[in-house]
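pipeline: protein-struct stage 2 | run 1193 | Macrolide export ATP-binding/permease protein MacB
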Amino acid sequence: MGAPLIELSAIERVFHLGDSRVHALQSIGLCINAGEYVSVMGPSGSGKSTLLNLLGLLDRPDSGRYRLAGRDVTTLSADEQARVRSERIGFVFQSFHLVPRLTAAENIALPMVLAGIPPAQRGERVRQALRDYGLENRADHRPDQLSGGQRQRVAIARATIMQPALVLADEPTGNLDRTTGEEVMRLLEALNGTGVTLIVVTHDGALGARARRQLLMADGTLQHDRERSVDWPGKACALPT
């Protein structure tokens, strides 16, 4: 089992809608070890997407502390958070979020371009990713020339090209048929098998049940934290004080 990767303590997130205050996250305390496979489930409005955005440094809590690999990331500037996000976190979305005008190879290379990695190094890593994900004959195709499964494979390749410690997947099979969705989940689970921490947000109970650990959310709170397998220690890391 790995060391603690994610440590959340007393996390609160409040949105203001007109005169109303919506408590999207309330007193969230959570610890996830490096290498875990976790699903986050709950109905619409339960807070799971807000939690994902916070874990991915796309949003900030109103109070509480988020430590990523031992570093308090809640106090970082926007530029510092962007750097951590680029180096440590990969995202896979339901709607793929590929750049329409870029080819598959260019979409995969994009995080490295933004990180300033030299072209020669980018080229070799993109070629390897295309081989790894069976996309060699689709390298020069734009997203509108790819199937849904191929687009999600490009998205996974892009999410992992910087070799992140954490992959966040938001309804990764939501726009795919069952067979293609199964293929995508096998790819994500294979990544987890290499030691990458995988967190999948889903409303699909069958998809969530694949994870070794399931978090159930409702009304902005963590209702249940279940471990599927007795041989996975899961929550062994202590919450920060």
